[in-house]
Predict the structure of Acyl-CoA dehydrogenase.
Amino acid sequence: MTVSEPGSEISSEVSIGTDTVDPDLIEMMDAVFAAHRKDHGAPGAVGLDTELWSTLGELGLVRLTGSSDHGGSGAGWAEAAELLAAAARHGVRVPLAEHDLLACSLLAAAGLPVDDTLRTVCVLDAAGTATGVPWAQAAGRVVIIFPVGDGHGHRVADVDAAALTITAATNMIGEPRDTVTVDIAVLQADSRAIDDALVEQLRLKSALVRAIQVCAALDAALELTIEHTCSRVQFGRSLSKFQAIQHMVADIAAEAALARAATDAALNVAITSRWTAANLGFLVAVARSCAGHAASVVVRNAHQAHGAIGTTVEHRLHEYTRAALAWRSEYGSVAHWDEAVTRAAVAAGTAGLWPLIAD
C-alpha cells in the first residue's frame, strides 16, 4: 500500500494483495477526498456529511464492491482497501466500510435485498444489546445478527433504524459508536437463519477493515514526520540530521511497514480464497496485533519528533495518531489479538508452527 504525503497525489500504481488497482481509479478516489478536505477543513464533531455521501454515491463508491446486477460497482476488496486508505489519508470520516464491506455484503451473502439506504451492522448479545456500533445514529437501516434462543446458530434481520433504541456515543475521534437495543423476539418474524461461517467472516472482515485504516493512518503520520524533521532547523541544521531523530523516524518506518505487510498478507489471502482460507483467522490476528503494537511506537515517536507543535489542534498529526489509537481498539483490543496469535501458535505445536507462519 503506497502512500504519498497527505493531501498530495499518490503514486501511479498501487497494489494490494494479488490485485493491481487501476491507477486512474486511485487518483479519482484521492481527488474526491482531497477536494472535500480542501472545502471543509479538519473534521470537527463527526456526523454523516450527506453532501459527501451523495457525491460518493454518484461516483459508484458507496457500494464499490456490490454486484453490478444489484446497483453496485462490481469492484473487489483491493479497490475497497484503497478507498478506505484514501479517506484515512485525508482525515475524512465516512461509513464506507460499514455500509459496503460489512452490512451490504452480509445481506447479499444471506440472500436478502439491498438498496441505497445507508446501513451499518451489529451483533446483539443475548439481552438484545450491541455496544460500539459504528454510525448507527446516521444509518437508515441496521443489519442485525442475533443469537438463536437455544444458543445454537444465528439469525439476521435488516431493520429500520427508527424501530431501534439507539443511544449515541463516539470514539476518541468523534466517529459515532452507538449502543443499539432491541427486543430479539420482535426480530424473529422478519429474520433469516444465517450460517455460522458468515458470522465468522463478518468478524474477520470487521477486524481487517480497521487494520487497513490503522495502516493508512500510520503511513500518513510517517510522511508528516519526515516532512517536519527535514524542514525544521535546529542549531543550524535540520532535525533529520540528528541521530536520535533518525532513530525515531526509522522506528516509525519499520513499524508502519511491518503492520502494512501483515495487513496486506491477510488481505491477499482473503481475496484469493474468498474469505475461506483455513489460516485466515490467524493472518487477521497477526495483522491486528502488528498494527496495534505499531501504533504505539508510531504515535510516541511521531509526537516526540514533532515536539510541541505536534500537540496543537491546528497541526494535522493528531488526526492520524488519535485515529490509529481509536481504530486499533475496535473489533477486538490489541490484547485480544495478541492472545489469538498465541493460541494459534500453541495449537500448531512445534511441528506445525513454521507451516502456520510460512503458508
User: Anything to note?
Assistant: The chain has two domains: 23-194, 196-358.
